[in-house]
Specification:
alpha/beta, elongated
Amino acid sequence: MSVELITDPDDERLADYRALTDVELRTRWEPPHGLFIAEGELVLRRALRAGYPPRSFLVDAKRVDQLGDLQSQDAPVYAATPDVLERATGFHVHRGVLASFHRRALPTAAEVLAGARRIAILEDVNNHTNLGAIFRGAAALGIDAVLLSPSCADPLYRRSVRVSMGEVFAVPYATLSPWPDGLAQVREAGFAVLALTPAADALPIQHVDAAHRARAALLLGAEGPGLSRHALRASDLRVAIPMRRGVDSLNVAAASAVAFWELGRDDPL
């Protein structure tokens, strides 16, 4: 397939890439059209390896020769100058490569639970940067799957995908509903639900016993408000990361990485 040169930022062939910095617009456009955007060559290639079918590629015209193998994919390759890319997308595409991919049907929560030994459960995590970082930490630190409350952000939003460095494609995830009653399903599947909280009565996470570690479901709340009282009540055990110097909590992405490592510290690599 040959490369198609785009000179007009309003060209209809670029519809998938329009106004990529407008979160509200992209939220209304991407899921209903069954697509997501990957930014950067590394992320793009991880999406391809994970089996996501490409819809199209959009590259800086100066990088066409470096990415010639994309022409073997069953999707059009569009090339444009940096100015056209910026005017179409709404930002300077400094990585020089974007791609639009078809989404795949999500598994059910039951399917995700059946294939996992240790999971993370996220409540109301709406910051795309935090969400992407949590997925990257999950992939690196032994978390087999992620369950999302219905109000969580979209893991396949461009910023989440970019921050995760494409690891969102490596970690199975599903929506857990109804919320928080769906946590009963997690417990019925044999998991211990551990709520991460700075509460004074929480058990230091390094003291969690082997029985709770074996099939742990770590419950994490949004930046700021943390876990809801309903979610806390539905947990089996409240756990905390001990803090020093009067610091009361960590960013949820940083806290998740610490907790993931601690729960899996004795796992063989």
